[in-house]
Amino acid sequence: MGVKGYQLKVFSGRSNSVLGSSIMNELGINPGEIEIIDFSDAETFVRINENIRGADVFAVQSLCQPGNANLMELLIMMDAFRRSSAQRITAVIPYFAYARQDRKVQPRVPITAKLIANLLVAAGADRVITMDLHAGQIQGFFDIPVDHLFAGPIIMDYFRTRDGMKDLTVISPDAGGVERARAYAKRLNAELGIIDKRRERANVSEVLHIIGDVKGRDVLIVDDIVDTAGTLTQGAQALVEAGAKRVFATCTHPVLSGPAIERVENSPIEELVVSDTIPLTEQGAACSKIKVLSVGNLLAEAIRRIHDDESVSSLFE
To answer: What pTM does this model have?
Structure first.
């Protein structure tokens, strides 16, 4: 029971059932009883198979590929919770899709991240928990509370304890990620560098040169999302050519679409450390260079604190 006496109920969608199970195991509760099926015409049907009237409901659903289907599934789940008289509905979205469409970069284009925020609220969300938004300002697209968590502490703990890591330089793959890389560098007692590049068109980038000291040093490329891995692997090659001793990389959200796995395997990257906000494909799971760290404990702790009306601010650090 929480402070107000509402019963805690956690339901998982189908996008990342392993992470959903991890969260519930950390909380020591049974998963909410829910039935989700697709009809032959691809329409989704959801039925809640237990009483949730007056309950504090958390819906865990990552908006990873297929993003549109997983988003629709989450919206339908929340509508079912609302119509079943849940006291409060929190959408737990480890990976927030469309976060890269957060502003108008040319005329006559949408701001899709804002549309997603509107849809979530319209479906019944009273609160959102998410991780490593591509643009932190997306929190302002919501008129409900948003708890924005970071996988950084979990990833940094891994590299702190990794054998042989010394003379480290943390690298931002672009100017926009400098703040994130600076936070890693400060906590890992490392130097800071930047890859200066010009993006010619979507999913295609050209590395120009390295800013920072990398010669004879281990380097760690830090990003929030790795999609096709073009930027990442080109950057890794440029770092090696600039004299880097070993190249490591990390991201929170391993989208890893298209040729990404093959590019990582054929790159000079020694290890790519990712979180489980997005489940790896079979090919990704088979890649020996990819190391997965779980954020289940972090998300479970956020759920517990919100349910018990406790502060979650320490989890943002």
So the answer is: 0.93
